[in-house]
Amino acid sequence: MDETTDNTTKNNSPPTDSSTDEDPAEDQNRSNSTRNKGVVSDSRNKKTDREGNNQTVEIDAAETGRDRSSPRFDFDNVLNEGENENKGLFDDLLAGEPIFENKEVLRPSYTPHELPHRTDQINQMATILVSALRGETPSNILIYGKTGTGKTASAKFVSQELESTSQKYDVPCEVQYINCEVTDTQYRVLAQLANKFIEKNKNAIDNRLSELKSLIEQVTETDIDVETSLSETQFTTVSGIESRIEELESDTAEMEPVPMTGWPTDRVYTTFFEAVDYSERVVVIMLDEIDKLVEKSGDDTLYNLSRMNSELKNSRISIMGISNDLKFTDFLDPRVKSSLGEEEIVFPPYDATQLRDILQHRADVAFKNDALTSDVIPLCAAFAAQEHGDARRALDLLRTAGELAERGQADTVTEAHVRQAQDKIELDRVVEVVRTLPTQSKIVLFSIILLEKNGVHNVNTGEVFNIYKRICNELEADVLTQRRVTDLISELDMLGIVNAVVVSKGRYGRTKEISLSVPIDETEAVLLSDSRLGDIETVQPFVQARFDN
């Protein structure tokens, strides 16, 4: 029965209930409204009652989203499509079960509560620094060891113990850490130290001002005479407290932070000196990567810091230097060397067994239960042991393997993930080393790449130099001598980017046979990303002519 027939029947039938009293216009409006909502095309649908008879039922458009009986509409599909539309970029990535419990414990910045196989070095540091807790000046310490041998982690661990013990016994002692690979000039070191102590001094002054103002309120609000109220303080009158408040406020106003550039170095040093000597304390200045500071700006910073104690009145300073270079003191002034190296501690490389212990100790905290297969930690330790026992490399390898497994939504970290992580880290290392090469070294390296791409393997120094000259001429860059280019090739060999072997050519003398030790495509891409070598691609056709002729 269509809509017109149905309406005619209803209008001609005698009224049986109140629903038949509706105005036909209102009924038409409701029908139009139902169609306009676009949920179903008709205002009525057929369904079968319990006796098998067809019934015409009115379907409210507002209820169609919940009515599963409609044969003309796939509600489940609409809901599923709605759910898919609501999914964001990260929903699928979050669907997998996480492997990590606390990834941060695998990062170099994390200081563990326990350092396996470094007990002797930690005890040695503690024995030297304990004098700070007695208010005495500790001896200066130089800590040596290759990358990843636990130098910085051990020093930070001892520093945290020193500061917590000083608070326990109410002894003014603190440690200031500076990474000299980042803060690599005398100005920056002194400015960073000065600003840290200025901030500490201001905070201490603010606390003292609050105490003094509170003391004035207590004295003025009590009925007890002033002298009795102040009997347990250093003051005898309210005016004395007010004078001290004025002094402290004046001190705060004079404490001007040091800008990162613009001041004479002498002024920066004076500001640091006054800031550190403002109150009584023992300060240990930890200079990580101290050899980078000496390499960049000489030993003036170390000389000034090591001589400060003879002029300080309230505070005492001790220096703890950390270096990967066992010979960096050879470049120091003898006076600096003698005062700085009062105590020396050497950190030997870890062996594979020790690395396994370290990894297991961190993995117990970093990963969820049963997230690692049994061969993961031994393999990470074995790879890192090949890199002079580098614990940092081992931890990076384990973390990267876990990240690769998690990205692949794997339930566990396996040996395959470790091997993938090893390849990724090695490639990242190559990219970083190549990216930071000097321009001339990059041109030499690109010359070797160009030779290998054209089928010339085990090239000699002369062939590299010929291509190097042509590239420099096309780029309008300075051309170095062949001896200097040979030195640059030796440096690339030391970095592991190329393999240069000296071979004898009999009566023709000796030469170096050079081959790449890194992936060609990735290395070339890094070189071409350097804006200074942006035109090198246009040079290639000219150099290519050398191979075509």
Describe it.
The protein is globular. The protein contains 22 helices and ten strands. It has a five-stranded parallel β-sheet, with helices on both faces. A three-stranded antiparallel β-sheet has the order 8-10-9. Strands 1-2 form a two-stranded antiparallel ribbon. With 549 residues, the protein is an alpha/beta fold. The longest helix is centred in the middle third of the chain and has 36 residues, at 186-221. It folds into four domains: 3-84, no CATH class; 119-347, 3-Layer(aba) Sandwich (Rossmann fold); 356-402 and 410-432, Helicase, Ruva Protein, domain 3, CATH 1.10.8; 437-548, Winged helix-like DNA-binding domain superfamily/Winged helix DNA-binding domain (Arc Repressor Mutant, subunit A, Orthogonal Bundle). The termini are far apart. The chain has helices at residues 3-12, 24-36, 75-86, 91-95, 119-129, 151-168, 186-221, 226-229, 238-254, 265-276, 290-297, 300-307, 334-340, 352-366, 376-386, 391-407, 415-435, 439-453, 461-475, 482-494, 520-528, 536-548, and strands at residues 44-48, 54-58, 141-145, 173-179, 281-288, 315-323, 343-347, 459-460, 498-504, 510-516.
